[in-house]
Specification:
The structure is a homodimer of 320-residue chains. Chain A is an all-alpha fold. Chain A has a single domain, classed as Orthogonal Bundle (Farnesyl Diphosphate Synthase), CATH 1.10.600.10. Chain A is built from 17 helices and no strands. Chains A, B: One of its GO terms (molecular function) is heptaprenyl diphosphate synthase activity.
Chain lengths: 320, 320
């Protein structure tokens, strides 16, 4: 079943959030308006708002209250994607980063800043101080994750712990906070919003591990980029860490650099796959999913609970 | 009299703020810790915290409450300076921007993001929703100012209005918000904190215009960069706009480009000065100062009021 079908009953409210997102980034500046809107529209599934709305249904669901959390989180997510796209030296070195793209870089940075700032404006409508603390904390962790990702590039000796902490910061906490803030702004008890935080955290971990697996297993058409792109860019993910337990394979993986040829890369990808590391990483992802389901068990039965479980399963098992 | 001497009675509280600033940016990551600390320490006069503290003295002054506003504003200011320093194409074109500096660029961006996020954490300690609205608004305007500055570069046909709006966004509003938030967090009446907002706004406008004048009149040693650097980088400031009222001079100014030689630039700077535009810009700066003093008049007599007036005078009349 397609992901979107699972929460079609939220469509009216998601459309409202779409309008609020567009309203939030309105700017006189045409460059900024177009850049922000383009970014927002290429944003995709709105999975964070979906989590906010579903979690809010465990409390006093009022779309005009919870929408603020949904819009804030989606803007923060989009802003972080923009900053993620600001090219680093690897792109420069390829020689294709012209002065034009460099100028775009600076504009991209400020467009991201602008979206962060707009997120704060929407956030200021939320009155609960705890919500502000959670959001600020999430943003700090997100930045730490981004900086770690730069630092950890091509570090073939990094530990699994480093990897897990990085994906927690870069991905899982934002999903965890989406769940928690949805519940919190709908006035649930601490037990419920903390439980939903943990649920979101585990789902986020599983989501990112699956993403890192798909970078090896999905086709170039499905990914929109060649398989193994993460590794080529120096991002060491779980399948690689598992494969590198074999010293011979580690020596092979360490030959990866950004200018590696397509053929050489294909050999390395196949060697990684042959270790069974993809399957093992899949087991870790499933383990996180199980933990997510366990958190749901403590929640009262509802359509929302059922949907959260279905989304989690869909996210963890997706093929691309 | 030196600026710092004017508010030496705040020294104990400013030292506390210094410690809080350092504590706020603590990070496990050594790169991040060093980068943030370096930036903070090169930050200078802490004029925004000074405004926060002085404004707070019109209410129930409690350093342990108002410090949060002071730290938040200084962190936002520092973060915006970091992003300001992310090189644009002009720096690249000069050929000196190596891969190393490009990598630094990306780290600089995330260090700025990190400081913004830490600012939010401190801000979350402030309970007044109005304070959050003001801070969010200030950050949105700051971003708009940054983006306008990029867009308006080398636009010799921009209006004075464009210039005034840009310096309002880039400089004046942050000082205005510092004054307002100091008062607000100390629980003053709306009349007082709004009056202090206007005071800060006018001081900020005067401050920036003076800054733009000094770029022409101060020595290279005082500025730490050659005179006329703003214009060379395409930033059209008030002295230039006034000078360009003369069509002949406008034609000359339009020949400025980033690779212009030192000698050619000297000719243009002298031509601009010869129009009397520096003095006229100085009058505009003084006019803003007058407006600032007028706002102070409505406030009860106090040491704080006297100091604000002295700082304003000092800032508007400074020689470098």
């Amino acid at each position: 079943m397609k992901l979107k079908m699972l929460y079609s009953f939220l469509n009216t409210d998601l459309q409202l959030i779409e309008k609020e997102l567009e309203a939030a980034i309105q700017a006189e500046s045409p460059v900024l308006r177009e850049a922000s809107l383009h970014l927002l529209q290429s944003g995709g599934k709105r999975i964070r708002p979906v989590f906010v709305l579903l979690a809010a249904q465990f409390g006093n669901y009022d779309i005009h209250v919870v929408k603020n959390a949904a819009v804030t989180l989606e803007l923060i997510h989009t802003a972080s994607l923009v900053h993620d796209d600001v090219v680093d030296d690897s792109d420069l070195r390829r020689g294709s980063a012209t002065i034009k793209s460099k100028w775009d870089n600076r504009v991209a940075m400020y467009t991201g800043d602008y979206m962060f700032a707009r997120a704060l404006e929407v956030m200021a409508r939320i009155e609960d101080p705890l919500a502000h603390k959670i959001l600020a904390r999430t943003m700090v962790e997100l930045c730490l994750g981004e900086i770690e990702q730069i630092k950890d590039k091509f570090d073939f000796d990094q530990t699994w712990r480093t990897y897990f902490r990085r994906i927690k910061r870069k991905t899982a906490l934002l999903i965890a906070s989406s769940c928690q803030l949805g519940a919190l702004t709908a006035g649930t008890s601490a037990d419920i919003h903390q439980r939903l935080f943990r649920f979101g955290y585990y789902v986020g971990m599983s989501y990112q591990i699956t993403d890192d697996i798909l970078d090896f297993t999905a086709s170039e058409k499905e990914l929109g980029k060649p398989a193994g792109s993460d590794l080529r860019q120096g991002n060491i993910t779980l399948p690689v860490l598992i494969a590198m337990q074999d010293p011979k394979l580690k020596a092979l993986v360490k030959t990866v650099h950004e200018q590696i040829s397509f053929d050489e890369m294909t050999v390395i990808i196949e060697a990684i796959k042959a270790t069974g590391s993809i399957e093992k990483a899949g087991e870790v992802s499933k383990m996180y999913l199980k933990k997510a389901f366990a958190q749901l068990e403590g929640l009262p039965a509802s359509r929302s609970k059922k949907t959260l479980a279905e989304i989690a399963k869909n996210i963890g098992n997706r093929k691309f």
